[in-house]
Specification:
Helices cover 37% and strands 18% of the residues. It is α+β, with helices and mostly antiparallel strands.
Length: 539
């Protein structure tokens, strides 16, 4: 099983589908238990100052009679109890934790989701909504034995309005598939992620995913024109093309990670599909040079600037060492910037002047820094994809340092001062980089919105022996609290970060969030143990 999951994980493609193709008996699954990720419940952060561990809340356990009800609603074939398929749904994409759920339901429409939730509310059965299961914070997998509600069958594109630039799609639509449908109408999804081949639009909205083109299209929530949501009670709320009053409810659901309702349908505003795209990879000797380039890009490239990504040398080394991907630049640099431009001008004639001005700034900055800047412009689609792969596979490369089981910790921080992106990496490296067990401290992310992905990799045995990971968490979250940064920019809080919400939110804000949760989900059945610290809720 562990080999199968490893072979699937690099592309984050169809874990459940691949799992269904492999036939293992229950005894075979049990024999592999020593190679499985640790239980999420055993990794859950202490819920009190005295170190008390999380315990399962008093939810009802699923009985045979419940399975009969679910089979009546969605059909027996979509009530999944096969151990292998259930295990796949319990294991998150990084393979660093797993839940203990014994059942997966795959409804085919919003009405079936509604009926399932009505029964779960009546019986007080805890439910975990699950999309493509590509999350990094544990938000889409059970902590204990919650029922997994997979939306993978709800993958239809219902309507495309090319004139208005709108698409209506079910929540289970895979992001890349949705974008492919839109391309036939000259439109594109205003979101691009490394996991686009597996992640689903409902899951993207549940975490308010950012991605590499926030700089061009803004936050995903700004493109939402309507939602259909199933509440914990089973009631369906359909805010189609919303008015001003409904938009407040829609915005409440976005980023709630399935704790307030289950997203079943979305209406998105989609921009015209770019016809001319260029990509420049730049090596710089300092982070200050990267910031100068960013300022130059914003002023010279203007509306054509679609992405500005940054990677440090440690990240590029991991990509080269572990994935054997080659950087096309002639020498090594301390930092690497990926600058993408995009426009609807197929000829590119209107954009050439802007790109020329940016390149002039690049030459000038190179002269000022004594020739320490290197750059390459993609010449064709093959090189374009190869350059983007350096950035999009960065996390995969870093995890390959040591394997997922206790060998890494990743942070999804947001800062307002862009220099803090480098400062946090340097501070973490200075604090832990000299420890024998630490392999690498690396940083990469979206410079446009100040979103840093900080990754620390280490030998698992050594990290456990010195209690490394609690120390790293305390250090990074404390640093962000002092700098008024956020502990989660786009990956969500899940259960991995819920205990640290107080580092970026006041007690009053957490109390208000808990009040909203109790109002919309009075029995707490939707995605329990996630987002809010357990101390904030009592059922």
């Amino acid at each position: 099983l562990s080999q199968t999951l490893r072979s699937i994980a690099p592309n984050r493609r169809g874990v459940l589908v691949a799992a269904a193709a492999v036939k293992l008996s229950t005894s075979s699954t049990l024999r592999l238990s020593s190679n499985l990720p640790p239980l999420a419940s055993s990794l859950y952060p202490p819920i009190s100052a005295d170190g008390r561990s999380l315990s399962r809340s008093s939810y009802s356990r699923i009985e045979p009679a419940d399975l009969l009800v679910f089979a009546d609603i969605i059909g027996q074939n979509h009530v999944i109890t096969d151990p292998f398929e259930v295990l796949a749904a319990n294991t998150d994409w990084p393979r660093d934790c797993r839940g203990q759920g014994g059942h997966v339901l795959r409804p085919g429409c919003a009405e079936e989701v509604s009926a399932i939730l009505r029964h779960c509310q009546k019986r007080r059965i805890a439910v975990v909504p699950q999309g493509g299961n590509t999350g990094l914070a544990g938000g889409g997998v059970p902590v204990f034995d919650e029922l997994v509600l997979s939306l993978s069958r709800m993958n239809r594109v219902l309507e495309i309005d090319a004139v208005a630039g709108l698409v209506v799609a079910e929540a289970g639509c895979v992001l890349a598939d949705l974008d492919s449908h839109l391309s036939e109408h000259g439109l594109t999804v205003p979101l691009d992620l490394a996991a686009k081949g597996s992640c689903q639009i409902g899951g993207n909205l549940s975490t308010n995913a950012g991605g590499i083109r926030v700089l061009r299209y803004g936050s995903l929530r700004g493109s939402v024109r309507g939602l259909e949501v199933a509440l914990a009670s089973g009631e369906l709320i359909d805010c189609g093309r919303v008015n001003e009053d409904e938009s407040r409810l829609v915005q409440l659901m976005i980023g709630s990670e399935g704790t307030l309702g289950v997203l079943t349908k979305v209406t998105l505003a989609c921009p015209p599909r770019p016809a001319n795209v260029r990509l420049v990879l730049i090596g710089c000797d300092s982070f200050q040079s990267v910031l100068h380039l960013f300022s130059a890009a914003r002023s010279t490239l203007a509306e054509t600037l679609s992405a500005f990504e940054v990677m440090d040398a440690a990240t590029m080394s991991a990509v080269s060492d572990n994935l054997k991907l080659n950087c096309p630049l002639s020498g090594s640099s301390e930092f690497y910037a990926l600058v993408e431009t995009a426009s609807c001008d197929a000829s590119g004639s209107n954009d050439a002047g802007k790109l020329d001005k940016f390149l002039e700034c690049l030459v000038s900055l190179n002269h000022e820094s004594a020739g320490s800047i290197d750059a390459v412009i993609s010449n064709d689609s093959r090189q374009f994809g190869a350059i983007w792969a350096l950035r999009e596979r960065a996390f995969e490369a870093l995890v390959a340092d040591c394997g997922p089981a206790g060998g890494y910790m990743q942070f999804d921080a947001a800062v307002s001062d862009r220099l803090d992106m480098q400062r946090l990496v340097l501070a973490t490296r200075a604090e832990f980089g000299q420890l024998d067990c630490v392999i690498r401290v690396a940083g990469f992310g979206h410079l446009g919105d100040g979103n840093l992905h900080l990754v620390v990799t280490a030998d698992p045995a050594g990290a456990a022996a010195c209690g490394l990971w609690p120390r790293v968490e305390a250090f990074v979250y404390g640093w962000l609290a002092r700098r008024r940064g956020s502990i989660s920019a786009e990956h969500g809080l899940g259960w991995k970060r819920s205990a640290y919400l107080g580092h970026c939110k006041s007690p009053t804000a957490v109390s208000v969030m808990a009040g909203i949760k109790r109002l919309l989900d009075p029995q707490g059945i939707l995605n329990p143990y996630k987002v809010l610290p357990p101390s904030a809720l009592s059922y």
